[in-house]
Amino acid sequence: MIQIGLLGCGTVGSGVVKLLEKNAATIAQRSGDEVVIRRVLEQDVDKCLALGIEPDRITSNFEDIVNDPEIDIVVELIGGIEPASTYILEAMCQGKHVVTANKDLIAVNGQALFETAEKHQVDFYFEASVGGGIPIVYPLKQSLAGNQIQQVIGILNGTTNYILTKMSRQGLDYQQVLEEAQALGYAEADPASDVSGLDAARKIAILSSIAFNSRVTLDDVYVEGITGITAEDIRYAHELGFVIKLLAIAKENEWGQIQVRVHPAFLPANHPLAAVNDVFNAVYVQGDAVGEIMHFGRGAGQMPTASAVVGDVIEIVRNLNHHTNARIGCTCYEQKPIVSINELEVEYYIRMRVTDRPGVLAGIAGVFGNNNVSIATVLQKSSDDNMAELIMITHRVREKSLRDALAVLSGMSIVSQINSVIRLEGTQRETV
Ligand code: NDP
Ligand code: HSE
Predict the structure, then answer these.
(1) Overall fold of domain 341-424
(2) How far apart are CA 36 and CA 21, in angstroms?
(3) Which residue from 77, 178, 186 has its CB within 8 A of the most atoms of ligand 2, so it is best to mutate?
(4) What's the CA gap between 107 and 205, in Å, rounded?
(5) Is 336 annotated as catalytic?
(6) 29, exposed or middle or buried, with CB in 10 Å at 0-12, 13-18, 19+?
(7) Using CA atoms, how far apart are residues 234 and 393, in angstroms rounded to an integer?
(8) Count of H helices and E strands in the chain?
(9) Is the CB of 102 under 6 A from ligand 1?
(10) Per-residue pLDDT reduced to its tens digit, 14-57
(11) How far is the C-alpha of 264 from the C-alpha of 424, rounded, in Å?
């Protein structure tokens, strides 16, 4: 029998308790051993009692878990940086294998966790930290190990995808949909990290580190969230043949530099990621041998995330029984530079409110031209008050050039407001 110490019995922890019980026979068959939860660390005892966990298996003292020689695997699901970090490191030092869903921690402190795991010869698995129930960490690390990965583009936050889908399909209000996502257990304890793009940034930092063999931390990721997206932008996106998605993008260029960013993007309606709606997540990967592939599934929620956690537990149980760990460990053996957002070259959607009179368009085009920004498409919607809404799509331009042009435009009397600037992604994709 293999015994687990579970830290946290909230949304995901409860799912793990339920799944280990519901599929106990199958899990024992596949792992080669009976897998049971020996003790649960939880500050809210009622959550555990509601799941049928006996009071003597519940503790509020981590020492009861870390010092218990019967516990082989610690599953950390309390989230956040501390005390989760200390608990994981102490568990490893005691020779316990660790499974976690904690992307916050891995994205900032991954190096210490991997080094400690290596030093103490224990497994450290974290499939649930990216994409909830979608298998992506293992496939990227193992199944695609023979490829040079060129890009990883993900819809990596269920809450924001749910919000954008509902706003887009049902015209619902942002706040109302956010509250629904919280009630459904998708959002983080502090949903600001979902809507600000931080949660997706943590996940793409983890995936980039694996994909490009170079440590990418949260600080390396350029981040914009979805709070500025309006119904008008969603409507114009549709009119122009796009959808708006919060994308997490990581690419390696031909000079071995990494570009890693999270922001809302206009995505062509026929791109594989454009069809990923509601709480679903997807990760689109391009490798030199495999070409394009996409992993799709539920990126958040109790049972999908528990599925990923339990999959990791089963692999560790098998490792224990076979006295092995054949999985590729930390692969950050290179140090690749991160490209500044100013050097990015993409197409942009720009929406601005301007005075509607002769010469205005020419004046605006002149500013763009002076800054090497080339316009590809212009739409003008006039209103009754002698004002017009200008919607523009640029050709590929350097971000710094666009920012310089917008700085000049925002100081001109003919420009009343620059409402939105949103990058395009996926327009250059080779289709097969
Ligand atoms: P929850 O807040 O629902 O659960 C965390 C639980 O841990 C709560 O019951 C909390 O109690 C308890 N807890 C927190 N700190 C301590 C402590 N020091 N000692 C004892 N108990 C503690 O979070 P989730 O289950 O949603 O998330 C868990 C992890 O999984 C996080 O790292 C999250 O980012 C990750 N994750 C979550 C997904 C999801 O869909 N929810 C998807 C993918 C990953 P209390 O409530 O009383 O604070
Ligand atoms: N809050 C996250 C999301 C949970 O909405 O995707 C999964 O990490």
Answers:
(1) Alpha-Beta Plaits (3.30.70)
(2) 8
(3) 186
(4) 6
(5) no
(6) exposed
(7) 15
(8) 15, 18
(9) yes
(10) 999 999 999 999 999 999 999 999 999 999 999 999 999 999 99
(11) 9
Please determine, for residue 429, whether its predicted confidence score (pLDDT) is greater than 70. Answer: no
Whole-Å CA distances, 65 to 1, 33, 39, 51, 74: 17, 21, 7, 19, 8
pLDDT in tens, 351-398: 999 999 999 999 999 999 999 999 999 999 988 789 999 999 999 999
Place of tokens 């009861």: 64
Q: Which CATH architecture has domain 146-297?
A: 2-Layer Sandwich (3.30)
Question: What distances in angstroms separate CA 143 from CA 136, 147, 204, one per listed residue?
Answer: 10, 9, 19
Q: How far is the CA of 188 from the centre of ligand 2 (A)?
A: 6
Closest C-alpha residue for ligand 2 atom 4: 300
Within 94-246, where are the H helices? 103-119, 137-138, 158-170, 174-183, 192-195, 198-212, 231-239
- Set 103, 203, 251, 336: catalytic member: 203
Ligand with smallest separation from the Cα of 192:
2
**Segments making up each domain of the chain, as ranges:** 2-133+302-321, 146-297, 341-424
Query: What is the residue with the minimal CA distance to atom 7 of ligand 2?
Result: 300
Lining residues, ligand 2, CB within 6 Å = 132, 157-159, 186-188, 194, 199, 299-300
Strands (DSSP E) found in 60-123:
71-76, 97-100
Please name the amino acid found at residue 262. Answer: V
Alpha carbon distance, N-terminus to C-terminus of the chain: 50
- Any idea what the Cα angle at residue 56 is, between residues 53 and 59, rounded to 5°? 85
Q: Which fold has domain 2-133+302-321?
A: Rossmann fold (3.40.50)
What is the token pair recorded at 184? 């459904």
How high is the pLDDT of residue 432? 40
Q: Per residue in 74-107, pLDDT tens?
A: 999 999 999 999 999 999 999 999 999 999 999 9
- Report the chain's mean pLDDT, rounded to a whole number: 95
Hey, which residues does 348 pair with through a beta bridge? 423
Same topology for domains 2-133+302-321 and 341-424, yes or no? no
How far does residue 170's CA lie from ligand 2's centre (Å)? 22
Most ligand 1 atoms within 8 A of CB, residue of 77, 109, 190 to mutate = 77
Ligand closest to Cα of 41 equals: 1
Q: Could you give the dihedral angle defined by the CA atoms of residues 275, 246, 278 and 239, in that order, rounded to the nearest 10 degrees?
A: -50
